[in-house]
Amino acid sequence: MRDEMRIILTILSLFAVSSMYTALAQERKDTLKISIDIDFDEDSVMFSDSYVDSIDIRKKSVINDYTMIGVQYGMGLNQMSWNPRMEQKMQFVPVNFGVTWTRYGKMFGYMPYFGIQAGLFYAREGYSLEEDYNIEGAQSVFWDVVEVPVLAHMHFDFWKMKLMANIGFYASYRLNIERSGNAVLPSVANTFLETDRRFDYGIKGGAGFGFVFDPIEIHFTAMYKYGFASMYEPDYYSEYYYRFASVSNFIFSVGVHFQLTKRTGKTSHQLRKEAREIYYQRNSGGNVPER
After folding, report:
1. Tens-digit pLDDT profile for residues 174-231
2. Considering the domain boundaries, does residue 19 fall inside one?
3. Residue 50 falls within a domain, yes or no?
4. 168 Cβ contact list (under 8 Å, min separation 6)
5. CATH number of the domain that 233 lies in?
């Protein structure tokens, strides 16, 4: 089982690193083909506004490498992965919000479907056990966490919509804890024990769709996170029989994202600059005079 998990983690790591490298380090290669008479003199080249307006750049370009920041709110369906098994009920918790940074990039210079997304979230997690089960006398437990996910991002844009998928890793820290139940001692109701673990990490991924109204995008996502770290020391109950409990949550969220750079097309200034460079490359051996 551990060997299979290592293989899965290796594949996910390679994919995430590849997408991050593509988003952050790839070179932009846009091509603008023109064929038009240009008026010029020895010191300058002039382009009329009618020429610039005649270029339908949206038909000739793909999605740009662009950056977004966003705010996100969601709700969680919380549970734990127990070993040995314990009967539990799903927790509904409407506390999950944060900020995200997204960077899109072209893979191999021409495939505009990839990117990287990082964020900072505040959320509430926990579990609720059935009547015959308890831990330290508690049947229901909540804790607040600060979480930092780093995800490889894939997207496909069409019309004014996009389809999205994310996969990556997260790290989180438990800020506080609240235990409740008929047998909970007051001394442990709001206190982490020495055998509790406050740091967590694991895998996070999901899919969603979005509506694009440049320069604003509205995204709807469904995510799943699974923790690799047990919430307590495995030998807390017995040094011979280990017990594990890992986070296993579903999160449904909506986010509003703001484009910091242009998503499609080029500005008039960019078009004039490219046309000027093309002209001098064809007629002056590639030497573009300073302006």
Report:
1. 999 999 988 888 888 999 999 999 999 999 999 999 999 989 999 999 999 999 999 9
2. no
3. no
4. 12, 16, 117, 149, 150, 151, 152, 203, 204, 205
5. 2.40.160.20
